[in-house]
Amino acid sequence: MNLTTCLKKMELVGVLAFATVDHNGAPQIRNISAIHYEPDALYFFTARGKNFCRELEEDGRVQILCYTKYKEMIRLSGRARAVEASRQIYWRDKIFEEQPYLANVYPGDTRDIGIVFCIDQGDVEYFNLGVNPIFREIYPLGNATIQEKGYVITDRCIGCGTCQAKCPQRCITAGAPYQIQQEHCLHCGSCLENCPANAIERRG
Fold it and tell me: What is the pTM of this model?
């Protein structure tokens, strides 16, 4: 798996859930399909009068989620920015060309009410529950820095094996200290809760 494959899977899913935060701090989620994909960016269209647009302009932070029929979850976390004015029509027309249904929603010059945003910095997390053991990885979009997540076993480990026995995915291997196979970790926290030596720390 890699970033390119994740973006292609998102494109094939088509309708993505976009999460933002409104001016009261409340979460908001919309399904968006007016999207164009580049190898290293997403461009999407909305109307300037929508609350969604206001939230993007005021804050910019957004998470995008899709779920495939193969039990794959792909989540993009980043910051959306309005495309520069000189390129708005170019990207808008490209999106309308690729998504013909939009001509029914915004016929003719009514599409002028729209604005195109771009996400070209962030991270894309891939999480597959359909394989055993589960598989997860995270990939940078642009030159974003990846924020590590999950759990790590520190040098306080006493080698008792309790964490290994309590791991649902059996992804902890013996050692000094024991090691978590991060690509198979559920991030459930069972190891942390059951460690008698308090040797496990949460990251991120």
Answer: 0.90
